[in-house]
Amino acid sequence: MRTSLNWIKDLVPGLSCTPKEYTDAMTLSGSKVEFFEEFDRDLDKIVVGQVDSIEKHPDADKLVICQVNIGTEKVQIVTGAPNVFEGAKVPVVLSGGRVAGGHDGEKVEGGIKISKGKLRGVPSYGMMCSIEELGSDRNFFPDAPEYGLYILPEDTEIGADVPELLGLRDAAIEYEITSNRVDCYSVLGLAREAAATFGLKFVPPVVPETGNSEDVNDLVKVTVKDSDLCRRYTARAIKNVHIAPSPKWMQNRLRSQGIRPINNLVDITNYVMVEYGQPMHAYDLSTIEGSEIIVDVAKDGEKFTTLDGEERELDSKTIMINDAKKHIGIAGIMGGENSMITGDVDTVLFESACFDGTSIRLSSKKIGLRTDASGIFEKGLDPNNAILAINRACALVEELGCGEVVGGVVDVYGKPMEDRRLPFEPERYNRMLGTDIDKETQLSYLKAIDLGYDEKSNELLIPSWRQDLLSYADIAEEVARFYGYDKIPTTLPSGEATAGKLGYKGSIDKLCRETVEFCGFSQAMTYSFESKKVYDKLLIPEGDKLRDAIEISNPLGEDYSIMRTVSLNGMLTSLATNYNRRNPEAFLYEIGNVYLAKSLPLTELPDERKQLTLGFYGEGDFYNMKGCVEELLSKVGMDDKLTYDPASKKPYLHPGRQANIIYDGEVIGFIGEVHPMVLKNYKIGTKVYIADIDMPHIYEKANFDKKFVGINNFPASTRDLALVVPKDVLAQSIEKIFDKDGGEYMEDYSLFDLYEGNQIKEGFKSMAYSLKFRAKDRNLADNDVNAAIDSIIEGLKSIGVELRK
Amino acid sequence: MMKDELEQIRAKALNQIENAKNLDALNDIRVSVLGKKGELKDILRSMKDVSPEERPNVGKMVNEVRDAIEETLLDAKKNLEAKAMDAKLAAETIDVTLPAKKHRLGKAHPNFKVLEEVEKIFTGMGYEVVAGPEIEKDYYNFEALNIPANHPAKDEQDTFYITKDILLRTQTSPVQVREMEKGKLPIRMIAPGRVFRSDEVDATHSPSFHQIEGMVIDKNVTFADLKGTLETFAKEFLGKDTKVKFRPHHFPFTEPSAEMDVSCFKCGGRGCRFCKGEGWIEILGCGMVHPHVLEMSGIDPNEYSGFAFGIGLERITLLKYEIDDMRLLYENDVRFLDQF
Fold it and tell me: How many angstroms separate the CA atoms of A801 and A786, rounded?
């Protein structure tokens, strides 16, 4: 919403402030000003001058020398303007003054300073201006020539201030109006706020009775089919319409609002729309068949041509204005081509109505046509405003002499609004705000915005334009706004103390983040939605459960159309970004959700499973990734029952270099080298390792219950075993034998050599382990250890592993 | 005569010790003077020629000379050893300015660093960090927050829908409702999380971003408490000189509502490009929980009141670190992440 500051000042007598002061005060009382624009910011020393005489320039064909009368003196100005003539009244910027821009319409920050100088040797003491140099354009001043000086009317006073004359000694204030304050989409609404903000009186225009002795009800009959869709419909008629330009004051006012003046009739409807926040429409009465207007919905699939010449498709929810035989307008959005005003109109019918905001919003969206009018209607208007606005328009018609107003009003108001009353509860407002504002002061704030007060019942009377005031909380806000939010004290809640905490899952997430960061991985953040094509890139076969993704019904595009069921795409995309930018290595992790539907289409909320995803390329391999995973699991107390199953069969991982991570018999994640075909799909030319931990398993199994185990001071006995192992036997299987057959003294073991090659027979590998034994209460004898080793060797034989000879 | 000889031996030995260049030379001196075949032994061997009356005298003299030489030898040895150590250490000097051997540490994403700071401030004030679903029911995201069907605010938020009743949450506010429904009072919570709105990706917009919701419900909670709490937060988060300004605003689920501006933390309020010359930066929306919202969640507004606020995490991250393009947050270029 935008208002001219001068217009506000006219409605709030005594208001004297700069645009900046106005902006700050209004923002603090709740009408947030986004910015303001002073039209005369770059205009300086520009007065009306009359060209007395013109002579040729001795040295330039395209220049002339003018003697210009500016009232106090005559100045010589050299110009190249083609439309200059003797007797012309023009804007003259004097030496030392400023204009807003060049005559090409290009504005210059800070303006252009004009100084006296010589043009081809002839002194010139100023400049005559085009409309563009004054910072405006032909859109707003259609009487300006395409090229040349802006010629002022003959009756203009010589020496007068030009910015003042053209309404440029003003500022446009741009507000952000919140959706609850429909009344502030009008100059009157904002002026009321301004008056209350500055503690001044709001003086709305006085609207006199209008109309001749005839009755508009004899000219047209109005029927509203559904009073929920059209809460009120008012109409008045203007006979003997005389279309002409509107007066200067109205043109200036419209321009200051950013509206282009057109003619008196159109200007009046625009003026009232801005002033009252009530859109109006004008029909040529002669096009209305059967002297009848019927407000009703359209039929599905009907077509209708709006006054912009476009054919629109309607549906059974679109409210239409019809005459006895046809549609003549889409209610609240745009009138029809068939009833529009043309130059030879004789009788005009003004419509000022209140349509259902939601209906207008949905229709406007469906039809794909948003107009100034629909933008206002969709906020839901005050039905009582409709009648005020149409009477104001008729008063302006008389004032401007634009026709003869027919007496009477057509007013179809099915269910008039009921007066709303709320109890006046000053203590309650204070309790909510934490203030101690006395009753009278509170009441004075409320009266300033035209709330009534019934002393007998101690009730507030809520005006019809404040449909947002529904409860004590709303009234408390009104009190707070005019008391000043800044004056409300600052305290802290006084209730019983509560213990602040991250929460259990939050603490585990934090521990995991810290651990993987210590392992060198940096945190990444990727989108939750992705393209279905991701499944092809990841080689996930048709029919795989992972493809059962939740689809967004109105996505931004295919690339953001499904909720991810696997966290890999974001990670690989981020690694690819790093790879393509030639970063030598990238170690990333992300904690984020995958979204698994319980059934599709969704009937209940899906399972959102938090995943910790790790990925890297650069120095390191599978076992580095595995090391990090184990550090992590150790941190959350889950290192004792950990195994790996290479039969994880993830299609996106290298078939021989992947494993499910298994804890206590349950899969809690996977780890592996990314499949070379997948890498190709992501355009990554180096090996990538990935691990994914399903966090709900961690939350469930994390164990921070630590118990001290005694430290044993008897010496350990160490034995090395060199083994010949069939290639497909896993280290994990050998270690299982150590655990099983190592006996009570087995303390620890570690692999210290792994070899495949010449000295080892085909299909086998050599593995060397160091085994450590220790007793709690004595030095171990050789015999104790030998017995354990023997039983280990027996056990190893059962899986085809032998001692190396 | 023997006395002279002893004096000579002493003088010669001390002289040699003084000139000895290394430990080997000292050892040679020890052997040649004090050793089994050394000069003092020779003297002792010739004692048989000394008269028995003089023998104690001579013996005493020999002992004196031997003690003196041994003592000097020991000093000289210590001295030389110290010099040898100095030389060795000098030879081992390294260039301490050569590059360090680093253990590569990962970094937290700037967005989550900021989140952690915010969490720390509020948990310190007794708030619990809670979470809610990202795919949410229309009821929790809108209706229970006083945004009924066909409310214009529903359009303003450009919602991604899955079905008619299930959507991607557009705000973290539904977590308020879920916490209130649990029925455990008082509540002091913050709920950070991912939210979604259908905004095209550009330097200042993303269809997915994060909010931090906060709410307090208790007896006698006032707007003044809201102001005090958020001012405390602002000073903790941005520095104790930070000033705050509350402007009236409108949210369907709070009344009265406000937006909070903080004095620009780049220029301190003088006006710069970060605050667009205003001196103030808007960082959050807040208000008293609407009585109707309390009622819908089963809380009696006559007994309890509360306030709520919502912070845009990316917004404060971008401002804090002077990041000029939101897309950088989702690219995960390690050269970017390494900076925080």
Answer: 18
